[in-house]
Design goal:
The chain is α+β, with helices and mostly antiparallel strands and about 425 residues long. About 50% of the residues lie in helices and about 10% in strands. The strands form three sheets. It has a four-stranded antiparallel sheet, with helices on both faces. About 35% of the residues are buried.
Length: about 425
Amino acid sequence: MPEFSDFETHPLGKELRKRISRIIWKMAIFQYSRYALFSAQVQILEDLLALEDSLRSSRDQASSLRKKASELAKTSVQSGEPLTDSIKQKINEIQEEAASYDQAVKVLRYGRWLYRYVADGIAWRAYGFDRQAIRAIGSKEPVVFLSTKDGIEKEIMVFKAMRKLGREWLPVMHDLTNCLRTADFSLFKNDVLYQLIELKIRQSAKQSRDMSEKPIGARESRQASRLQLISEHLQTGDLELLDRNLKGGKVFKANVVEKHHYEALSTVIRAARSRRKYGFIEPEHGLMYLAFDTRTHAEESALRSASKYHPHIFDSLFTFQGIIPRFEEYHVSLPITAMRFSPRDMIDILFGRVAVMSFINFRCVEDYCRNNGISLHFDQSGKERKIMVDSKPYPIEVREGIWNRLLYEGFSLQSFVDLTKVTIIESERIST
C-alpha cells in the first residue's frame, strides 16, 4: 500500500488532505455524536462519488492517449518512412500526458482507501469498539465501491431515510468502509445495534423484515445465509460459523478494562511538532513510544537520545513497529481514525507529518508478566516467533491478535496481562 508522502505534492493529494482533515475536525468538534458520525458519512459519500467519477475519467483518458500514440506510431511505420523527430516528440508528449493521468489514478485510488479508512473509525465508534462484531461482518472478500449507478441512488435514499427516524437512530453505510463487508447497513438505536440490513433481501441480523419474501438468486441466497451465520456467531462465539478451518474455535467476551497509552502517544507527537522535532516516552517499563517530524532527519537524533535515556529497551532482543494507517486483509486492528487522539494528532499521523513508533523489549515483557503471575516467554526456536505461556496440562500460545495491540494500538502492558490471564482461564476451562 502506498503512503501519503508519495502524493503529498500532487494537486489531488493536497485537495485530499484538505477535505479529509475538514471531516475529522468536524467529527471532533461535535464530539463524535450521532449527528457528527452521520454527517461525516454523508460528506464521505459525496466525496467518494465525485472521486470515482474522476478516477474513471482519468483511467479512460490515459487509455485513450496511449491508443492515440500507438496509432500515430503505427501510421508512420506503415508509410515506410522512419519516424521523424517531430513525430517522436509528439508521441513522447502524448505518453507523458498519459503518465500524468496514471499518477492521478494512483492518487485517487489511495484517496478512496483513505476515505474508507476514516469511515472505518466511524464504524468502530458506532459499534462501541466491539472487535468481535467488526471481525464477523468484515471476514469476507472486499467489495467494490460502490453499488451500480442505479443501485446507489436507492441506497442513499434508504440511508438518509433511516436517519430521519429520529435523533436516536444512526445508520452506518458499509460500502463507505474497508472493515464492514457483509450487508449494506448497520442501524443503531441509542447506540445499540438494532438491525443489519441487506437491501436486496431485506435481512436482519435477528430476523427477516418480511418473511413472506424469500431471497431469489444465488447472490441473495448467499447473503441471507451469511447474515444468519453472523447472527449465530455473535450469539454463540462459534468461529466455525465464519470459517470452516476454525472448527472448535470460540470467541469469548473478556471482562477486561482495556487501557491505551493515548496520553503518552499525544505527548511524543506534540514533542515532534516542537523545535526539537522528536520525542520519546516510556509509560511502562520495556514499552517505549518514539515520534519524529518526517520532514527532518530527526529520527537519528531521536534514536540516539532514546538509547541513552532508555538503554534497557535496546540491550537485548526487542521489536518495533509504526503506529500508522495500515492496509490489512480483514482490517481487524483498531484504526488510527478510531483512536482517542486530538484531530491535529490524528491528521499528522494520517498524512505522514509525524511518524510514531512503538518499541518493546522482549525480556522486559517476560519479567513484567512473571511479576504479574503469568509465566510467559518468547519462543524463538522456529521460523516464526511464538509467545507461549507455561500452563497445565498444556502450554498456551498467545496469538498475534493480542500481541499486535501492544505494537499497533497503544495497548498497555497491564491490559495485555489482564487479557492474557482471561485467555488462559478460558482456554483451561474449554480443555477440561
